[in-house]
UniProtKB/TrEMBL annotation, chain A:
Domain Electron transfer flavoprotein alpha/beta-subunit N-terminal intervals: 22-213
Any one Gene Ontology molecular-function term assigned to this protein's record: electron transfer activity
Official protein name in the record: Electron transfer flavoprotein small subunit
InterPro entries assigned to the protein according to its UniProt record, in alphabetical order: ETF_a/b_N, ETF_b, ETF_beta_N, Rossmann-like_a/b/a_fold
Pfam family name, one: ETF
Superkingdom: Bacteria
Coiled coil: none
TrEMBL record, chain B:
Alphabetically ordered keywords of this record: FAD, Flavoprotein
Protein name: Electron transfer flavoprotein alpha subunit apoprotein
Pfam families: ETF (PF01012), ETF_alpha (PF00766)
An MF annotation (GO) of this entry: flavin adenine dinucleotide binding
Domain Electron transfer flavoprotein alpha/beta-subunit N-terminal: 21-216
Amino acid sequence: MKIIVLVKQVPGTDSVKLDPVTGVMVRTGKDTIINPLDENALAEAIRIKNTYPDVKITAVSMGPISAMKAIKEAIAMGADDGVLVSGREFAGSDTIATAKVIAAAIKKTGDFDMILCGERATDGETGQTAAMIAHYLGVPAQTYVSALEVLEDGVIVKRTVESGFERVQVTFPVLVSVNKDISDTGFPTLDGKLKAKKVDVPMLGNAELGFDKSELGLTGSPTRVVKIFSPKLSRDTIMVKANATMQPIDELLSFLVQKDVL
Amino acid sequence: MSMYVNCSIAEAKNLSEFKGVFILGEQRDGKIQAVTFELLTWGRGIADDLGCELACVLLGDEIENLDEVILRGADKVFFIQDPIFKNFLTQPYSNAITRLVNEEKPEVIIAGATTTGRTVMPLVAAKTNTGLTADCTELTIDPDTKLLLQTRPAIGGNIMATIKTPDTRPQMATVRPRSAKQSPVDTSRTGQIIVKNYAGATTMTVEKFLEFIIDTTQAVSIEEADVIIAGGKGMKNAAGFKLVEELADLMGAAVGATRDAVELGWSTYPHQIGLSGKTVSPKLIIAMGIAGKIQFLAGMQTSDVIVAINKDPEAQIFKVADFGIVGDVFEVVPMLIETVKKMKAKA
């Protein structure tokens, strides 16, 4: 069985910047981590590999050259190999343009049974690229998955939805986007680290994928950022200090009544 | 596996062919979900600004009270009816909605940023080769260009981005649940219910729905709750966290938790608020024993009224709070619980 795990490199801190002109996120490559939910996806792939020895895990990432670090980390944690999708033409792509490129890159790596990824990334937080990738590959997408059971010809997924869980059975090939409950994240192993050092991770650019330039980057993106602005978050906070009396509680409750939320 | 087809968005779409606003309603067990009525508020406003019709799309087997959607603002209801639509499955849902979109050519489609909306809308956007903006908190029509301006929080809510879809149609967005009030019933309204039967290739799927399991700890789900009582590490232990649950129960509120509280096992992941959990914007959230890490604030700072109770006057949570009580949660919260009990007894 072949599993592809999508790993996105995201900023490790909250110091992401937006380009004030294009409104596109600027990633400097410093202090980066694998998107936490992608790590959960990777951990689940490794869990499956530990149960079924013939599993091969390929980590795929799209991003700047520095995203190679994310793939090497994934290999250190247990992926067998990786592919980096990178190229200046891809910069500024929205979710549609990104999904087309990642889907094309996955096709290049050959047949697969399952794609695993986090249900969203902590930087863009759109959570829509995964399903779009599934569309471009012509496979079903199962989202918000918190548990997964491998069958002979497919999987049973448990989706965490509003007010409960849904269990859905689906045949291979399939894309599954996961939440944190799927698996505890793992750690790099010594063997993995050595392997990560040695293994040659191929890079796919547009020369290999062959898109028309008009389909990539900003020109290939149906959405445009019109403006960015800081939300007005500072509130006029009423602060009271608790004491032995009921007064602070009474003040709070009359405030809530006045705000019409009680 | 189907063949991947390269097709450029630059491919000319005759934009003027696209008219009308769609909202994507939701049902569970044949009951129309509250998010549908919020979407009607969004949709009605946009349709009026554009001077066009508002249609509500619902998929299901049997659905109760379809008329209510019209009384609450829709001019038309497209009811795509088939046993396969009883429960959400990605392939038949996305195929059917795409088919309706290709038939009807709406200018705008809005869905809830729910697990269903956030799954099916990307599929429909990709199938119709258009743009989609996730998790908007504001939608307006540009008075000059008549384009849909889609505003969403980005980078953990630290910045807002306004996005448009200038050259492709439909213009698609998901909006955060609770970002609008439910549209009121107006019994004088009339409209048309159009039943669509798409049995055949459209309803075929390799997916099989097995079961829905209710999570009893989510009697009130945090995405849909008016009031959330949330607890963090300051609740000290599982027994301490029970105070959060007690107050929530008393107030008919949902229970929220920080990542720490979930990782310590005091609550479960469906209750987690923040960057790696859920984003909520209730009318009222009371944060108890929560320091206010940026990851948590990102998930709740658009709430209408924020109350914080924490013993550290410098805690970051107070920076986003409307009302802060500096004090020990184990003294303040029991007093609050007693007071609410008395209020309820009186009422």
